[in-house]
Amino acid sequence: MLVAEQLAVLSENRCDLFVADGETLVVVAHGVVCKVLLLNLLPEYTLADWHLIGPMRNVAVSELVREHAVWRSVRLNELSKAVAAL
Predict the structure, then answer these.
(1) Whole-model pTM?
(2) Which residue has the higher pLDDT, 35 or 5?
(3) Is the model's pLDDT at 81 over the cut of 70?
(4) 19 and 10 in contact (C-beta within 8 Å)?
(5) Which residue of 34, 40, 71, 84 has the smallest Cβ count within 10 Å?
(6) What's the 3-state SS for the chain?
């Protein structure tokens, strides 16, 4: 499966094709890709909220959890203290 196809599957909430319940999926991508995925996966956002998330910072972490087929953010665009101190 091509990367573009994989991202399309992720944005359609079909992560079950990649991982089973309780497993972890890590996505490492450029900021624009991360932002588009977040805006598509998190129900409280739409593409019209692009400016609300702000710039996606290098090495920032966003942690999402899927509960009852709905995604919620645990951490969003967060830098570790060590990286932020640089």
Answers:
(1) 0.74
(2) 35
(3) yes
(4) no
(5) 84
(6) CCHHHHHHHHHCCCHHHCCCCCCCCCCCCCHHHHHHHHHHHCCCCCHHHHHHHCCCCCCCEEEEEEECCEEEEEEEEECCHHHHCC
